[in-house]
Structures are given as structure tokens and as C-alpha cells.
Amino acid sequence: MNRTIVWFRRDLRIADHAPLYRAALRGEVIPVFVFDRALLHHPETGSARVAFMLECLRSLDQDLRDRGGRLIVRSGDPVDVLPQLIRETQADGIYAHVDFERIYGRVRDARLNNALAQENLKIRWFEPLATTDELIPYPDYRDLWYADMNAAMVPTPGHIHVPTNVISEPLPTLTDVGHLPDAKQIPPAGTQAARNFLQEFLHEKADRYYWQLSYPSAEATTGLSPHLKFGAISVRECYQMAQQLKASPDIRVQRSRKQLIARLRWGNGFAQRFRYLPQLELRSLYNIFDDDGWAFDETLYRAWQQGETGFPIVDAAARCLQATGGWKELNFRIRALYSSFLSNLLGMDWRYGALHFMRHLIDGDCPIDHYQWAMQSGVTHCVDKTWTRIYNPGQVAVDRCDPDGIFIKRWLPELKHLPSASLGSPLPMKGYPTPILDYKQARKQRVQQLEQQRQQFLGLENVVPHLSRLPASLLPFGAERFDTEVSWATTSDHSLFPPPLDLDAIAPYQAQALRTWFVAHVDVKPRKASRRKPQPEPGDLQLSLL
Ligand SMILES: Cc1cc2nc3c(=O)[nH]c(=O)nc-3n(C[C@H](O)[C@H](O)[C@H](O)COP(=O)(O)OP(=O)(O)OC[C@H]3O[C@@H](n4cnc5c(N)ncnc54)[C@H](O)[C@@H]3O)c2cc1C
User: Fold this and answer.
1) Do residues 22 and 127 touch, judged by C-beta distance below 8 A?
2) What pTM was estimated for this model as a whole?
3) Measured from the CB, is residue 369 less than 6 Å from ligand 1?
4) Which of 62, 131, 340, 481: disulfide with 391, CB 3.0–4.6 Å?
5) Is the Cβ atom of 222 under 6 angstroms away from ligand 1?
6) Ligand 1 contacts CB of residue 207 (under 6 A)
7) Cα 212 to ligand 1 centroid, rounded to whole Å
8) Mind listing the pLDDT tens digit for each residue in 500-538?
9) Whose alpha carbon is nearest atom 53 of ligand 1?
């Protein structure tokens, strides 16, 4: 009988899962998850996120068992573990989704490809939903995204036959994998939990999501981000559930539906940007913003982390992040406000902020987190001033996001006695710090700095020479600050898979396509959705990422 290993990574579900479905059609399946120290001890890995992932794995194991299977757990470097598993089980090969969240994953998969090829062992990579290995203009990507979302879901296998003699390690605990619980409450995990959140959204939140999504105390958003991060539910399933609201005559519901769908698309779009330019994990999009130098001050960084800035909404965000991992309450607006404070008002390198977020967020997702940080810091756009988003952290923010002060007072009980109108800038008092900066002055300084940096782009037709290249060192940012496992980044073999775009050899039409991803107003005519490969012109760089 045919026998296929299905390697689960950030797709911890059995529904709408092409590799699992195809493998089950072929015959016996060995569904495996490999605990890899390099990811478990990456500088950006947070304990709460690992705890959530363990719960997702427990749920995946149960879902497999409900269909006659089980999850096989192994530990070690996948480059050793997987070829060994093929040999041990006499499997025909491996099925897995392509993963391009992190540089580490690309290096790992490149090494695995090489190791398998050396032994003539097989792996088949499946394109995940809403992504492409071709460089296409953003309008085409939009079409592709909707085509994928509207396509039928991949059927869930009715029965999953796992050979009985394949040995599995027990599912480890958090401490087994070298992490300590950090007191954050872990959301209900797994596919069914995600579906429950979606139902809650459809029935209880759809009429208010669109106008309450910036109010942390309203908890109006879906809460799905940790599930989407680990693929406990597919984006397509979320999209198709949200589309059920289309039948509603309520205009508020229609607004919410559209807003949610746009956000699901944004999340995938950031991942696609990282597919093209993996350097965005380590660098700003344009050289100038990093080369010009960022300020850094450890004491101020700590004040920002601990919630001791003297700006109540910023401090509430800081404490909420550390206590809860951001799930539910730390919505987009609060994250944006909190991040803008560090990078714009304190003038510090956004990567320190992104690192702190990743260590605490239960939904921490490198492409979304890093790109959002860079966006909020104003460094993803080289000419467009509207991308200078410096949030006023005073009363304006309180009035817009927390008009009754519920969020602030929950996290800063020392301010409980104050009326909402004083929560923007409380008078000096015992037990709460005075502001660590002058907003107007800090803002002015940052605006000037960004304007100066953007000067060099004025009138430029081609910005590609100014885009950051993949740095020679792939060492994750902040590796020296923690006890981490980053030896993979210090080896001399940096062969990336899939390879990054060669920006120095890029053809003009490709440069233009790339630009549509980063600058809104580039005139590329949208094409009809098509998954056909565009015909390269002779001599053009062929972007074969797989
Ligand atoms: C500095 C900063 C860092 C962020 N880091 C992350 C992160 O690491 N992981 C993460 O999932 N989101 C991140 N976000 C985006 C956003 O804040 C969260 O997706 C959202 O708060 C998650 O809650 P939800 O699932 O209830 O959101 P909902 O509003 O219910 O959205 C549903 C889904 O859409 C996607 N989404 C929503 N908003 C955005 C957005 N602005 N950009 C991209 N995708 C979005 C997410 O997958 C989310 O789960 C960040 C935002 C900022 C400003």
C-alpha cells in the first residue's frame, strides 16, 4: 500500500488541507510534527505562543484519532528526523505545505531538500492558500486571493489510516520543550475552537465589529489570530463563513463583513511580501531608514516595555501585552498606538519593538508583526507622507479608543479614581510616572527626520536600487539578548530555499510589479484572475521560487 508522510508545520488542521487529503487518497498516512529546537528557541519565540501551539497539536491529534489516525511526534532537526522517518517507515515520501514565514524555515527546507536529494528520497511541496511562487502585481494578487477564497474547500478525509507500528514520542509539555509558563491565559485552541469564535462573530459581533474594532474594552474582533497563525483553521474557511453574512439586509453587518475580509486578505498579503523579500524579517524595506541610524536607549526601552511611560493608554497596552499576550484586547489600533510610541516618539529601531511583541504575542506572526511595525514607524513608504502615522498618545487616543477609560483602568488600577477626561495626561501624582517625553516636540523631530530621509527618493523612477538586500548575516535580530538556538544562522551554508528575489538582476517589468506591493499608486492594469504562469521575456530573470 502507498504510504505518505504528511509534515505539519503551521497548518495544524485536518480540514481544507491539501497535503493530508492527497496523502489519504493515496493510502496510508504518517502525520508528523517535529519539535525543532531552532524554532522553539528562536529569539522571537514566546512561551505563551508555544503553549498555544501545544494545545493546537493536542486538538489535531484528537481530530486525527476521530478519523482512525493519530499524530506522530518526533523531536530534533527535521533535516535528520524526516529522512530517518522515511527510511524507518518505508514511506514513499513527504507531503508538506511550503512555509515562508521566516528565514530560518527557508534555510531548513533548503537543507532538507538537499538531504533528501542525496538519498534519492522524495518530497512534494504544496502551495498554501492565497500565495504564489510568481512575482505578480498586487492587483493580480487580489484576484488570486479572491479566486482561492471562493474555490471549494479541500475535503476532509473520512478515514486516516496510520500504520500501527510507527512509534510516536508523547506530546511534550511546555517545560519539556524548555519553556516556562508566563502566566498568560491560553485561548481555547484547535479547529473547533476557531469555528466557535467564528460563530460568535457571526451571531454576536457582526453588527458592531466595523465600528468597535478599535475599542479594546468592546472585544468586538474575532479573536482568531492565534488560530490563523498556526493554521488551526484555513483562511478560506473563515472567508466562506464570513460570506454567509452576505444574505443579511443589515448595512452594519455588511460593513463588518467587508472589513473582516479585507483584514484576512491583508494578513496573507504581508506573508506574500515576505515571500518576495525575506530580508524584511531583518531590515526595513529601504536601506536609508536603517543606514541613517536609529536611536536606542535601554532605560527608555524598559519604561516602554514595562508600562512606565506616563502615558496611560500606552502603559495599559504595555501591561496588557505582557499579562495576556495581546489576545482579544490588544486590537490593531492599540498595537499601532503602542508601537508608534517606541519607533516614532522615542525614535527607537522598530526591530526592538517587533522583537518584544513577538516574545509576548500569542498570535505573533513574523510577516504581519514586522511589516506592521515597519508601517507604523513610517518606513515602508519612501515618498508618501500619508504613511507618517504618528499617534497622539494623549487624550485624543483615550477619546478615540477608550472613551470610558475601561481598558486603561483595568490595567492601571492606580488611575481608577480619575475621570476619563483626565486619562490622557494625568496631573503628577504619587504612584504613577510623569511623561517620559514631550509629545509635540518628539513628533516634530520624527516628522523632520522622515522628511529628510525621504528627500532622496523625490523624483526617482526606480526605487529598486534603494531596497534593502538580504544581509550577509542571517542572525536573527536580538539574538544576543536572550538564551537562543541560532547556530543555523552561523553556518557558512546560506543557501536559501526558495531563493530571494535577485534585486540586482530584476527585469523592469518585474521591478514595476514589485513596486505595486509597496507603493499604492503604481499604474499597473489589473488582469483577470489567472493562475497561468506569465511567459517570461527572453533574458529576464526567471522567478522560479520552487
Ligand atoms: C505593530 C503591530 C503588530 C501586529 N502584529 C500582529 C501579529 O503578530 N499577528 C497578527 O495576527 N496580527 C498582528 N497585528 C494585526 C492586528 O492587530 C491583529 O491581527 C488583530 O488585532 C488580531 O485580532 P483578531 O484576530 O481578533 O482580529 P480581527 O479583526 O478579527 O481580524 C481577523 C484576522 O485578520 C487578520 N488581520 C486583522 N487585522 C490585521 C492587520 N491590521 N494586518 C494584518 N492582518 C490583520 C488577522 O489574521 C486576524 O486574525 C499587528 C498590528 C500591529 C499594529
Assistant:
1) no
2) 0.95
3) yes
4) 340
5) yes
6) no
7) 15
8) 789 999 998 898 899 889 865 444 444 444 444 444 443
9) 336
